[in-house]
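Quick one - inputs below.
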Amino acid sequence: MPEEFEPKIVAFFCNWCTYLAADLAGTSRIRYAPNAEVVRVMCSGRIDVQFILKAFAKGADGVLIGGCHPGDCHYQEGNYKALRRYRLVQRLLRQMGIEEERLRLEWISAAEGDRVRVVINEMVETLKRLGPLRKAEGERAADLVEVA
Amino acid sequence: MPTTTRRITIDPVTRLEGHGKIEILLNEDGAVDRAYFQVPELRGFEKFAQGRPATSMPQITSRICGVCPTAHHMASTKALDDLYRVAPPPAARKIREMVYSAFLVEDHTLHFYFLGGPDFVVGPKAPKAERNILGVIAKVGVETGRKVIEIRRKLRDAISLAAGKAVHPVFGVPGGVSKPLTQEDAAQFRQAAAEALEFAKFTLGVFEKLVLGNREYVDLIRSDLFTHRTYYMGMVDEQNRVNFYDGALRVAAPDGHEWARFDPREYATYVAEHAEPWSYMKFCHLKAVGWGGFQEGAESGVYCVAPLARLNAADGMATPAAQEAYLQFFGALGGKPVHHTLANHWARVIELLYAAERLKELADDPEITDPNVRVLPEEAPREGIGVVEAPRGTLIHHYQSDARGLITKANLIVATQNNAARISMGVEKAARGLVSAAHADEGLLNMVEMAFRAYDPCLGCATHSLPGSMPLLVVVRDRDGTVLSSLRRDGDGGIHRS
Amino acid sequence: MKPKVAFYWCASCGGCEEAVLDLAEAVLDVAAAVDIVFWPVALDFKEADVAGMDDGAIAISFVNGAVRTSHQLEMARLLRRKSKLVVAFGACAQLGGIPGLANLTTASGVLDEVYRDMAVPLREIREDGATLTLPELFDAVFALDRAIPVDYYVPGCPPSPKVVADAFQALLRDPPPEPGTVLAPNQAMCDECPRRDRRPEDVKLARFYGVEERAIDPADCILAQGFPCLGPATRAGCGARCIKGNMPCTGCFGPTSAVRDYGAKALCSIASIVSGNEVEEIDGTLDGIADPVGTFYRYSLPASFLGGQAGNLPHGRQ
Amino acid sequence: MPDREVRIGVYTCHCGTNIAATVDVRAVAEFAAALPHVVLSREYKYMCSEPGQDLIRQDIRDHNLNRIVVASCSPHLHEHTFRTALKVGGLNPYYFHMVNIREQVSWVHTDRAQATKKAKYLVRAAVRRVGLHEPLERGRVAIHPDVLVVGGGIAGIHAALTLANAGKHVFLVEKEPTIGGHMARFDKTFPTLDCAACILTPKMSAVRAHPNITLWTYAEVTKVDGYVGNYKATVLRHPRYVDEDLCSGCLQCLEACVYKQAKVPDDFNLGLSKRRPIYIPFPQAVPQVPVVDPETCIQFKSGKCKTTCIEACGERHAINLQAESKVEQIEVGTVILATGFQTFDAARTPYYGYGRYPNVYTALEVERLVNASGPTGGEVVMRDGRKPQTVGIVHCVGSRDENTHRWCSRVCCMYSLKLAHLIKEHTGAEIFNFYIDIRTPGKGFEEFYQKLLNEHVHFIRGRVAEVTDWVFDASEEGKLVIRVEDTLAGFVRRIPVDMVVLATGLEPRADAAEVRRLFNISCGGEGFFLERHPKLAPVNTFTDGIFLAGCCQGPKDIPDTVAQAGAAAAEAMALIDAGYVETEPNTAHVDEAVCCGCKTCNSMCPYHAISLVEEIRKSRVNEALCKGCGTCVAACPSGAIRQNLFEDEEIFEEIEGILSNA
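Output:
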């Protein structure tokens, strides 16, 4: 039995809420799993579905989107755009055989430092249960592209 | 240079993707023991159709073949009518058949002048460098050459007006077509139809002059080498006349009498498929008769489709000029049914004439511009079957869907599958008659090739290849597989010995 | 001396060859401008002739069709060796094309489906003392540039005659276009859509329709009518053929140069104009897109980030 | 990607031991050194320190670096610091990316190996991304010199006056008919016991009189648009039915009211007294103008009133019962929120009997009782008319309590001591304080506590279990019994008293959430408005140009409130006097070569910053209006819109940097 599978999570956090919550978790010295690495965006509305699929293609086992609670968007409604894209991309991933638990959208306000801990720890547990997501792009391309 | 079987089978150059491939095995005496016609490709449209909306099938399945996309588009669209239990209004039905007729004219033209034709127009033993469209043009004259190109362009432009695109049309929807035909569009169709009819008559003339006028060719057509006594299937209208767009399927027995006449929806009770481990192609045969191997005669379920089969299965043509040519055809070849494979070329030109006449009838029909071209479905989709006569023969699309209209099962029987068994037999017979350890030369190869090119076998439908100059490998081996000689004709028609 | 040009097809339907023939009279001009050394569909030259050429002897090879079998890969590599430039011609070569939808399943999945209760063909079988073989089906369909380096792309299923003609012009020009260029306009199709001015400022969709549910108005913006028209996400050059046929754009020309994953971007954009802020309302609307992969990746699954069979679940689960 | 060769310098910060204790900083620096385009990788104790910044400036020159990555704390803390360092070093400040390995790595992880690995990957992501950065210029937005102050309590009053005295025009908006807030209800203020009115009312009249202050009482802000320097606010002014300009404040109308007896509970006195339908909240109210309460005025109810008030007003015609609410539109450059607090509702702790036993009072009620201008004229008489002989003051009601509020309200200990002193002074009663801890961290606070001890006020340490009238013996007859565990004596005691005072805590106003959304700022977990940084930006919010003062940010006493109000005013002035504010350049822009004019983006923008330019049939972004959220960028179907600092390619690189070992 090799060492335990450590899932990789790419987390896209809104600058005004979830990213601040993650900072708050830090200043509050709240401990959580080190499996998630954060990409800061100004608003969850900036998160292009391309980013999500790219992350999965490059080996992420899970992708986490953190935005402001409904009605609280720093830019009024970017988080609703994020929600709509999330609901549709989930359907796409299902068709491609990717479990919906691998993509998670959470509303986490600047005040909810502990929520960051709860969500990331939960997600790590879930992903350990699901196991690694097979890399699609990398492996397949390697089959064919000639090494020049 | 002797090589081992193994090395030949891995030789990439002989494995032309999507091309038919022939392997001939000899017995101790150096005579042909067995010959195989292999189809080494498969795309699995049936599989990835699953989960797609049925309404996307007309556009998705047209990608099975870019040469006869309109045939797949039409069969698929008719399958949607059936799936949603909705009948298109008269104008929509007429627009569909008009577009389909225009397509048949340009497609049969393509085969006669670009692909199959050269063998006759230029000649089976003519130098390979001339056996192509340029050779044809040289023979029939540059003006005719330009005319061929021009008429195809005009027909395809007209098709685009109604269908959006000539390659991969988009206008087929359940219960009709995506838009009505404008007066201007109709005018352009009438113009093209008139020219097409003239051109069709001209082409029949060319055939009579260059082929029927040539004793050698006629003997070749009638020679036993290219003759098989099998069943024939084709679509017919109420009066049992040839129809490409709609009607009943009719099967003629080897002796010519009507063996069956049925609603295409019941195809599954009449037609069965058989798989051979050495080909990706499935071999169709008549269920009731059964699969008796690659055999001729009433006891073998082997049948075929395509122009000759359609004429054999029908009692006549629905348009005057074509009907006249029809009678002349059977008169000249000794009555129904005609079993000579190479007669397909003649039958094709007769169909070309019919399609042009039908095209004109429909283009002249005032109802063609009626704005009512759509009936919206009301019933939940479940199962649908759509059948048309593709240029290369009967084409069947069969879908099952869930309540949302997503495909749960698709079965596609393409024209060439119907012919697969007879093509294999034709190849083996020709090979037996022509090939021996002693000699296997270029003319021989082209003649073996003619045995299946006559069907205009659209392996684009069964594989990915374009029809026409079929690549062909003849490997002459002794019993233990050692190669005595090997001649290869590539997709380009060139020959080389290894 | 005229530049040597080759045409070849891999896993394609032949529509791209037709697209060249659809240059009609112009075919002869092209033929006059170049020296066609290989074009199986029309002319009598052999692969052996290609193999016999010096490396780089061919100026441009136009390859259409995707790569699905071992033999197609060999041919692609041969032409790459012999050619200075390789042009991926048509949607299949550029993006994988419609046969690329097979990437939602595997080769064995395809075989099982097609040969339900019959003997599945073997790659190799001994018959009467000889070994007959069939080429290997890869588990997935690949866009041409996943198999060999590609210099230029001509988009479309099939490419429109205009795009084909312009592409020939561009390639014969000096200096040639930037390597990697897609030889078609770099705006989205709306740019040439006859209905572009009919699109309202603020399109908000509360419901998506299928063609079986509603007739498409022949004058208004098709997307605004609730049909997922991908014109805004799709490269122009087709002349809005499908729109003129009164049907939605399905994206055969692929993305502009500013987008990496066509389907992801198209999906992202369409989702952005769905109305509603409540999950229930949003989901209700999205139910109208029953087949996201088939809708957004109809021509580009093999060229997408995930390629199709990305996950561990049984594929194509609805 | 600029043509110039990319030369990246990476700086990994120890932050003392804050980072170094959990992350192997050297390993991270060595890892970075090996990354492509990295020509220099250093570690340093405190990158944000002057020497640290100097290191960067020096290296830019010596090694002609053209990209900088700093791995230290949150960009929210020091991104600006380092960008400035780049600028001074002669590099465009946006050739920079910051990696957060403190708040989001060292402080939240324990496993050194894993934390170090995560830090490495984050650094690699930054290195890959920064190579694509383009030079950017900050935009400038002019600051409108006027200021909106919301809330007329001591915080709002002080902030308004400070600004007005500096010559800035202030709009002061107060919900109530008078300014003054909670402080106006107090009698004395701790620990100095100087009279609240004496120090507050002069400031109140100063506000009224100040030429630079536009005072709108009985008014609410209903809508706020715009951004720092250019806010547009809509203010709804409720009709008080007495014209402020015409009224002289003679108050004859009150006397003239047909109600000879006041019948309506007076909310300024917390219902401890009654008022008429036309009233003035309290004698020193500002403005000194009565209000008509349409709920209770007969004319409004029946239309059959003799309207003697109008007669009384006579010539001035100040009273207009047909008056309607007014909507004011104002433009300001900055906003100070001083919306205050509300006291904890004692009914939420039923075991203390508030509302059940008439002689249980809240502290604020007692403030009114001991107030000379209060309902009882300063006499401490209970609802039953008796004067209390024994009084129990229960501390921490709705504070430091799992079941209500966890936080300490900071003022209760001191005001409880103050009330104990005042009640004793007024009644000579025996007084018991029930406390958990006595907290006196303030100038003169502890001394005040000592003073109370010397005044023989009892202090019993323990959280009160209940207040009951269920008596055990004659000694408890007719009294309220306070049951408490005396944690010093170590046993449960029953203390019979006449009067119970509940020292209720401070909590966010009920409408705090609405106000927060209105001004687009954040709330902390407890519901008070969230400051940008607890130490370095205590009066700033995350929305530029909006500042906080007083208890809306958290419980505090008057001195702290006033200090904070002054600070908020100073912050506003700093912006106003600068004349402009620099805006982040992370805005969106359209690549017109790609745009097809499909208009998808136009509807995405909440600020209407994108519109179609008809002539060229392409969309264009008004960068002055663009806030840089990037929603349009993700929505653009053809990738024609791009966002500075958040280009697709930059984010793709970041993703690959994070995952290239995956």
